[in-house]
DNA sequence: GACATTTGTTCATATATCGCACAAAATGGC
DNA sequence: GCCATTTTGTGCGATATATGAACAAATGTC
């Protein structure tokens, strides 16, 4: 790609939008400038452009994103068949399990939720399509990383900030690589309070008819209700069933 | 705002992203150019910029958005307190009603889903945060339009393409304005298969402690299961309860 | 209330982008 | 396989944007 094939004004504008995700919903020009490391004048122009287009509003001091900004992410969710195909299966899965079910794909070192059916609230954080979690300590992340060639999985770990969320979090790269091999062998991953105390989850890969892993689905449950050791027994049959159904409908 | 405070390259890039939402997930340069009415060279530069940043991938022929694009919409969902505050209440509401519950805000002539708790699948379309429906024929839309000054509600209707989705869809502006007054008076709106045959829904406004309507929540149910005439009796108490709880926690 | 600091805005100018026109490549129909 | 059509890539002049400094306004501090 040539230098002139890059629209830096566009790239900077996108950076400004993402700056809103990192903190609160209101940003001053100076705050956005700090967060993005862009010149105040440049940030100001980007923000005024967003306002002009209705993606943000400006009260003279603070800029706030409007719901119109959701059109951008929705361009992906609506256009990509995966979330649309998976959602009904997820709804059914969550209903039968009586617990939350989610689907995600890998984006760099993180898993990105693309669909979710919530039955009850067990996590302290609010997960919606677009939410991100570190892959190494999430059940779906383990499944997705296990599906990668070992060298790539290792590369992801190297780029990850391996910090422990709970005393249970595995953060040793070698231990994690061994875990990926186990997951690959058994076809599922169980997380026992590695992400958040009190939360267990189990995930399986979603494969297309050529056997390629294109996503992961999981079920989360309160550890007090279903101990980590019981997760597979309780939920694996349901997950396997959904996995099988999806294999038949995915392109 | 001065002319030079507008970054047209940014605006054009956003238009290109939205072009993906209108059709399928893969777009060629020429297709994107047609959809956006932008010059091919311009679209090409925008798409290459998206690829360079990891928001899209290019196989030499087609451009496809990646999950990274969800960061943009998520910047709103994560940064705006509303969806985060509403979600757990919605989960509880859906569980108690045994039906899908959603929350939305108004954006122009459309309602935009900002949170959703699904219990079962009744609609043919897949609704996720960011999904949009015409406000005039959706229960939450009726509630949100009823909360506007009459002149503004009328202005929205004038800008709306009032086309009937089903034989039940009300499309006469005067009839709709009368409906808004009724909704304002009774404090809820019921839709009986106006959006989709077989689907009924009931919505109430979500108000903050100053009485301002900041969103709407609804419950949807299959018409075969709960006729439109029974919606209020069945679900209004639950909705009112959630409404009341939200009034106490919203800023 | 005066000073110091931060923030928002404006301006001139160097620089990068835009859209056009053309060339090259790919596609499709027969 | 060939031609017509569509699509993609590129060079260039006109035009628009980014930059950083300078100034004005607001905010915070003592």
UniProtKB/TrEMBL annotation, chains A, B:
<dbReference type="GO" id="GO:0003700">
    <property type="term" value="F:DNA-binding transcription factor activity"/>
</dbReference>
<dbReference type="InterPro" id="IPR012794">
    <property type="entry name" value="PcaR_PcaU"/>
</dbReference>
<protein>
    <submittedName>
        <fullName>Helix-turn-helix domain-containing protein</fullName>
    </submittedName>
</protein>
<dbReference type="GO" id="GO:0046278">
    <property type="term" value="P:3,4-dihydroxybenzoate metabolic process"/>
</dbReference>
<dbReference type="GO" id="GO:0045893">
    <property type="term" value="P:positive regulation of DNA-templated transcription"/>
</dbReference>
<dbReference type="Pfam" id="PF01614">
    <property type="entry name" value="IclR_C"/>
</dbReference>
<feature type="domain" description="HTH iclR-type">
    <location>
        <begin position="7"/>
        <end position="67"/>
    </location>
</feature>
<dbReference type="InterPro" id="IPR036390">
    <property type="entry name" value="WH_DNA-bd_sf"/>
</dbReference>
<dbReference type="GO" id="GO:0045892">
    <property type="term" value="P:negative regulation of DNA-templated transcription"/>
</dbReference>
<feature type="domain" description="IclR-ED">
    <location>
        <begin position="68"/>
        <end position="251"/>
    </location>
</feature>
<dbReference type="InterPro" id="IPR029016">
    <property type="entry name" value="GAF-like_dom_sf"/>
</dbReference>
<keyword id="KW-0238">DNA-binding</keyword>
<keyword id="KW-0804">Transcription</keyword>
<dbReference type="Pfam" id="PF09339">
    <property type="entry name" value="HTH_IclR"/>
</dbReference>
<dbReference type="InterPro" id="IPR014757">
    <property type="entry name" value="Tscrpt_reg_IclR_C"/>
</dbReference>
<keyword id="KW-0805">Transcription regulation</keyword>
<dbReference type="InterPro" id="IPR036388">
    <property type="entry name" value="WH-like_DNA-bd_sf"/>
</dbReference>
<dbReference type="GO" id="GO:0003677">
    <property type="term" value="F:DNA binding"/>
</dbReference>
<dbReference type="InterPro" id="IPR050707">
    <property type="entry name" value="HTH_MetabolicPath_Reg"/>
</dbReference>
<dbReference type="InterPro" id="IPR005471">
    <property type="entry name" value="Tscrpt_reg_IclR_N"/>
</dbReference>
């Amino acid at each position: 790609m040539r230098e002139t094939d890059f629209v830096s004004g566009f790239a900077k504008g996108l950076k400004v939008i993402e700056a809103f995700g990192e903190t609160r919903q209101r940003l001053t020009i100076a705050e956005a400038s700090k967060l993005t490391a862009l010149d105040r004048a440049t940030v100001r122009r980007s923000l005024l452009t967003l306002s002009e287009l209705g993606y943000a509003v400006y009260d003279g001091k603070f800029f706030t994103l409007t719901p119109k900004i959701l059109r951008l992410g929705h361009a992906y969710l609506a256009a990509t068949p995966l979330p649309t195909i998976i959602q009904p299966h997820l709804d059914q899965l969550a209903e039968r399990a009586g617990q939350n079910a989610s689907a995600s794909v890998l984006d760099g070192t993180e898993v990105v939720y693309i669909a979710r059916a919530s039955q009850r609230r067990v996590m302290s954080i609010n997960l919606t399509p677009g939410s991100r979690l570190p892959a190494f300590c999430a059940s779906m992340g383990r499944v997705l990383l296990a599906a990668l060639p070992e060298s790539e999985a290792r590369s992801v770990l190297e780029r990850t900030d391996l910090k422990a969320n709970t005393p249970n979090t595995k953060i040793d790269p070698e231990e994690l690589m061994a875990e990926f091999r186990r997951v690959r062998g058994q076809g599922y991953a169980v997380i026992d309070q590695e992400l958040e105390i009190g939360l267990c989850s189990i995930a399986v890969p979603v494969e297309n008819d050529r056997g390629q892993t294109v996503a992961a689905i999981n079920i989360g449950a309160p550890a007090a209700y279903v101990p980590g050791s019981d997760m597979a027994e309780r939920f694996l049959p349901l997950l396997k069933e959904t996995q099988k159904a999806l294999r038949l409908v995915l392109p």
